[in-house]
Amino acid sequence: MKILTTVKRVVDPDAKVRLNSDNSGLVTEGLEAKMNAFDQYGVEEAIKLKEAHGGEVIVVSIGDSAGTKEIRTALAMGGDRGVLVTADMSEIDPKGVADLLAAVIEREAPDIVLMGKLSVDSENNQVGQRVAAKLGWPQATFAFTCEVADGWATVGREVDGGTANVRVKLPAIVTADLRLNEPRYASLPGIMKAKRKPIEELTPDDLGVELEPQLIIQGYSLPPARAAGEIVDDVDSLIDRLQNTAKVL
Amino acid sequence: MARLADHFLSEEHLIFREQTRRFVQDKLAPHVDEWEEKKHFPGEVYQWLGDAGLLGVTAPEEMGGAGGDLFYAMIFAEEMCRSGSSGLAAGVGSLGISLPPLIHHGTPEQVDKFVRPVLAGKKVSALGVTEPGAGSDVASIRTRAVRDGDHYIVNGAKSFITSGTRADFITTVVRTGGEGFGGISLLVIESNRDGFSVARNMPKMGWHASDTAELAFDNVRVPVENLIGSENGGFYLLMENFASERLSLAFMAVEMAQLAFEESMKYVQDRRAFGKTLAGHQVTRHKLAEMVAGIDLCRTYNYALAARIIAGDNPMMEVAIAKNKSVDMASEVIDQAVQLHGGYGYMREFLVERLYRDIRLFPIGGGTREVMNEIISKMILPR
Ligand SMILES: Cc1cc2nc3c(=O)[nH]c(=O)nc-3n(C[C@H](O)[C@H](O)[C@H](O)COP(=O)(O)OP(=O)(O)OC[C@H]3O[C@@H](n4cnc5c(N)ncnc54)[C@H](O)[C@@H]3O)c2cc1C
To answer: Per the count of CB atoms within 10 A, which of B67, B98, B104, B200 is most buried?
Structure first.
């Protein structure tokens, strides 16, 4: 079975980000970066599928060349080889990411693609869906269970207020939610072995993809600073403040 | 914040740090408060770490280790401290001070019998140097091993032995010859031998998750094949061992300072006094600035030093400098962190209170501040 999984390098979600001087972007220089949390579940599921069915796990990332670290992390967990598409992420929108991924997927022709449901930095939650649409493949998003047999995947999906069970015919796109599995820890021998696994570097040109963003971020602003609280004397003045100052009653 | 020190690291080191952090934070950190209160961590922790391959990161592959360089051991020590309990780090870490003589100088049989099961998390080992009557002055230890056919008969006592109450064996410093450091040997003594006993688990100021034992040896018969290296050749092995212990204490101290800094950062941006947050007062911001500066300087020195050791140097003086400066910096930073927390800094439920108790050991253990200064001054002054 040929399994393709995707990883994105994101700024550590616990890091404190600052805006650049004209509020057009975030200052990420000097901040630690790591694998998008949801991608860890996708990678784990890909490796579990390989362990159950045999085959190969291909790890794909799009971003700057530092992203080899996130690919190698997935290779250290048990992936076989990597593909890094180098692109400037500040000039690329979810459609661009999906176009590039779809081009890689067409080249590799995997039986199944496992992705994170969204990336924790930009939280667009679009790429899996767009790739499926572009390729004309079925999709099962927000997976919390995934079984593969006889050319079909049976996927339990997290949906509002409950769960849904779907069957999708392979090849298909499955995006992982956080109850899907418990991602393994790469061991040091695994990390050292991953050093020798191949990572192919490609550009959008190599893939014949023209990047024309359709979504342009105009600017960012930080949430307003929290004002100091106020202690009121009695319930009447509390109600008065809620009605007339906060205007929530 | 990406750090100057990280420029000494490869991509593999960074991946190892992320994976180890995830493991420690998921599996160990949630239990740390309980283990500190109970003054004990369960034996299965060794098994968890062994299964994750974290106990032998620098040991050779053919012994069941991962064959990594010194940075991997230091990163493991740092991340264990980030569990919030340097006592846990020390308890687990007793293998890091008791195995190296066996790894570097042990026979293949000793490796099979002692090294492999410890790296796999199946056995616990400890290092026994200090005695009730001799600490810094290692050359004057009195625990005696007298040859009797193909055995030694050991009599004496050891004190302050980390993991000593549960160790399956102790890498023990014994006197096999005359006075001074020419008469010292390293002998592996299993704790199930007749005449071996744990006299007591010593109650202490900090490092609560770890046990610290006083051990007694009463005519313990130990086979000669448990001798590490040559008879009366133990002192050199011991010196080699001290260097790596001191370096890891320096790394641990910096990480404890880092934790104190992180706790302070959270606290001062939240706690208000006189109409603004504590961080709104310039004096607080300057304290934080000095914390960061001290941490960064020491960390970068330590990483540079580790890189030199990996390259083959044996810088005794620099290891002593690293230990003293890192420990003094960390003691100061942690003291300031307690101060910034006000009354809460004195309370058990705040991490800085534990850090404050735990860091006090660092200028004492693994060679005191004064002993480090002796090493440095001997290197800089003409004899
Ligand atoms: C929690 C804990 C865990 C420990 N774990 C272990 C362990 O696992 N294995 C082990 O073998 N030991 C262990 N130790 C022992 C530790 O290494 C010793 O406590 C340390 O080496 C100091 O020895 P000492 O306590 O005998 O003090 P002493 O050597 O008696 O020193 C007392 C004081 O005199 C000073 N001093 C000594 N010589 C000189 C000098 N020449 N010039 C100036 N000042 C001097 C010292 O710096 C110190 O301030 C542990 C200790 C503690 C507290």
So the answer is: B98
Mark whether B103 and B131 lie in a shared domain: no
Same domain, B188 and B222: yes
Q: How many separate domains does chain B show?
A: 3
Question: How far does the CA of residue A207 sit from the closest CA of chain B (Å)?
Answer: 27
pLDDT in tens, A52-68: 999 999 999 999 999 99
Domain boundary among B202, B233, B264: B233
Looking at the fold, whether B143 and B260 belong to one and the same domain comes out as: no
A69: which chain B residues are within 8 Å (Cβ-Cβ)?
11, 14-15
Q: What is the mean pLDDT of residues A174-201?
A: 97
Domain range enclosing B335:
236-380
Shortest CA gap A28–chain B (Å): 10
B10 close to ligand 1 (CB < 6 Angstrom):
no
A124: phi then psi, degrees, rounded to nearest 5: -80, -35
**B212: CATH:** 2.40.110.10
Looking at residue B37, its pLDDT comes to 97
H or E stretch covering A169: strand A162-169
Ligand 1, residue B368: give the atom nearest the CA: 47
pLDDT per residue over A17-26, tens digit each? 889 999 888 8
| Residue whose pair of structure tokens reads 């032995």 in the numeric block | B161
CA-CA distances (angstroms) from residue A163 to A118, A125, A127? Answer: 18, 19, 22
pLDDT tens digits along B153-171: 999 999 999 999 999 999 9
pLDDT, position B1: 55
**DSSP classification of residue A15:** S
**Does the pLDDT value for residue B12 go beyond 80?**
yes
Please enumerate in sequence order all residues whose Cβ is within 8 A of that of A219, keeping only pairs 6 or more positions apart, or say none.
A22, A23, A24
Q: What structural domains and CATH numbers belong to chain A?
A: 2-223 (3.40.50.620)
First to last CA, chain B: 45
ipTM higher than threshold 0.90: yes
Residues B136 and B152 in one domain: yes
